[in-house]
Write a structure and sequence with these properties.
Layout lengths: L5 E14 L4 E7 L10 E7 L4 E3 L16 E7 L9 E11 L5 E11 L4 E6 L2 E17 L16 E6 L10 E11 L1
Parallel strand pairs: 3-6, 4-6, 9-11
Antiparallel strand pairs: 1-2, 1-5, 2-3, 5-6, 7-8, 7-10, 8-9, 10-11
Length: 186
Amino acid sequence: MDNTFLSQLTNGMIDEVETNRGNSFIIVSYSDCPRCDNPDQTIRLNIGSNTVILDENNNRISPRDLQKGMVVNAAFSNATTRSIPPQSMAFVIQVTARPLEDQVTVGRIVDVDRQNRSFTTISDGNISSVIRFHMADDAKIFNSFGRPMQFANLVPGLRVRVRHAAFMTLSIPPQTTAFEVRVVTV
């Protein structure tokens, strides 16, 4: 196949999805460097009536099924605008992975490890509900009024609502990454 009019990206992350009646697009971050961890390119892929969109099982899906955080492979036109980000017409978009869903846990802090920026909670006094949360670098912490607070202000006894990753380690206690912590009551 002659690829002079075709560009491709693999393992791009959807940053934004816009779907209207006849005007849909996605903004995708991707890397030209296969061994690099951080995406260094962004492109807006315009979706037309001839764009083929496939899920992980190669079933056709609608532009409305695309979500922020999905990982995609795409084939698109070499003709791009000079805008920021550049725009191009998408021919094929294939979803290869869906975003992990966040989960929420409410519990009382029983231990804080300031050196490792982590804390442990227990829910309803049930020993089997103990979870150790490691704070993500960009995690946010809010007091009971919704105002930002510092990690240093988390102390045992605080009741918190933690938005965290869906995965947990098989250790005792299970551990996961916290994205947001809100104090519920003191």
